[in-house]
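Appendix B, record 7
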Amino acid sequence: MGVLQLQFLLVPLLTSLMGAGQYVMQDAALMNYMDQRFVALEKRLGKCNQDILDYVEEFRAFSKMVLSRLAGLNTYKAEVKSEVQNLLTRIERAQRDIDYFGSVTDSNTCIEVHEDLMKQQLLEEAEAKKKLKLMLNASCDHILTGIKSLKIVKKTGDKHGSWMKDPGKKHTKIYLLNGSVNNVILEFANIMAFMENNQTLNARRVTLPFPWQGTGHVIYQGFLFYHRYGSLNEIIKFNIQRRKVVGQMLLPGAGKIPAYQLSPHTKLDLAIDEQGLWAIHAEPETGGNIVITKLDHTTLAVEHSWDTTCSSKDAEAAFMACNTLYVVYNSPSGGTSRIRCVYDVLDAVNTYEIPALHFPKRQGSHCTVHYNPKEKQLFAWGDGAQIIYKLHTEQK
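Structure tokens (predicted):
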């Protein structure tokens, strides 16, 4: 074969091989390009997923913030409503005072009140007192003249707490509410079960939907009345057997300062006497003096309110007995507790003639003193001890 023939055969073959190489190089470039595109796409998808996760986290945080703001708004709304009610009450009192003084005095000279007008005024005052006595059942005619003995029933629980017995006719159960903030009541079948050593095993536990604040709660006719923790002045009515809240109310003027200077955890103290349910608190507007309010235990409606002359300074507790407020005072360091201020809402006794009444044979302090009208005894909590005081009484 000659050189020309060989050249004629090799040239097409080389040309074909060079074309195939170009196709291989083009396919490799295409695959490399596609790989780069897939990697870029995966990166973008990863960034998109991360952005979605960040958005979800931000949305959750925003939702929590909104819910927190709404909760705070509800609390603020309740406080504003309470302040408005308190302001209206003060305005009504001031208006009554203005009307009264305007009817009997003149801005420049003293004028003589007509005899008929004076008689009418006296008749109206007598009628108002008569209605008040009927409302408060004037058959309650005794007054406390002494504290004759004490019995330390048990010593259990924290420094602050409250224990009591429902003063209803057939109630024998004892209730223990330990601490100034808690939501569990211990219920005992009777006083003997309470006095046994292992109190937890013998007690029925009742959990409240809202915790209490302070030690000023009471139990009356199967219902617990207490100051709701975290609120300014909300009173809760709780059915113990059915374990449900059946009533709520805001007490105007209460909650701004402690009811008693020596018991700062108690802003609102509730009490039971022969006439039913009372609320005791102090107000800055009265110079820190104690205010008492008669409540309808069924509806929690306010029936009447009195600004007393009893100061909350150096006071540690108070109780109501037969329409009369008794305020217990002590020294800040603890000592002999004594009753130094008495306020009768019907003016049936001259409270200034009543001597100071001392709690016998005990040095210390009380965070709770509650009167039981059925047994005519005081149920007190002093430095973690549960105490019963027996009383001396006389007719008004």
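Remarks on this record: Confidence is low (pLDDT under 50) at residues 106-111. The first helix runs from residue 3 to 104.
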